Amino acid sequence: MKKIFFAVAASMSLAVMAQETPKVLKTTFSKKALEQKVTTLEGKHTQIKDILEKHKGKIVVLDFWASWCSDCVKAMPKAKELVQKNPDVDFIYLSLDRNETAWKKGIEKHHIENLYNYWFSSGWKNDFNNDIDLNWIPRYIVVNQNSGIAKYYAITPDDPSIQQTIDQLSKN
């Protein structure tokens, strides 16, 4: 009985911690974070700063996910609705899959091959994810037209603050 109680208490505690918004909300990415390399679908390596530079002048939503993540998979339909509702926004999917094969199968399975897809081949713990205090996936960050962080922390694609941020940035 004690084991069950502690298991339930521990899992509840982890769930609350994982969904807690970080105390410091950032507005920029560190230089070290922007130098983090990710893998393209073609197997090439590129830095986060180069990806953001390609999208400069556009509103960008960074979607952190993995094919093994049940919450990410459950969120996919709502994420697709967000994409459809915002055709002028660039959605960048950053995968935390454990290997390239799983990542590519996940892209195909969830029909996101027409969007921007990258994979953290270095795994969860890397300079970019450490800089943004990545503690849970899915996670969404809205980036403004100048590559600054406009919305730092959301864990569901239907979080109203994501659309509000996009709408506000669209007016500028």
Protein described:
Pfam families: Thioredoxin_8 (PF13905). InterPro entries: Thioredoxin-like_fold (IPR012336), Thioredoxin-like_sf (IPR036249), Thioredoxin_domain (IPR013766), Thioredoxin_ResA/DsbE_sf (IPR050553). Keywords: Cytochrome c-type biogenesis, Disulfide bond, Redox-active center, Signal. Its main location: other. There is one protein chain. The protein has about 170 residues and is α/β, with parallel strands linked by helices. The protein has one domain: 3-Layer(aba) Sandwich (Glutaredoxin), CATH 3.40.30.10. It is about 40% helix and about 20% strand. The protein has a five-stranded mixed β-sheet with strand order 5-4-3-6-7. Strands 1-2 form a two-stranded antiparallel sheet. The longest helix has 18 residues, at about 1-20. The radius of gyration is 16 Å and the shape is globular. It starts with a helix and ends with a helix.
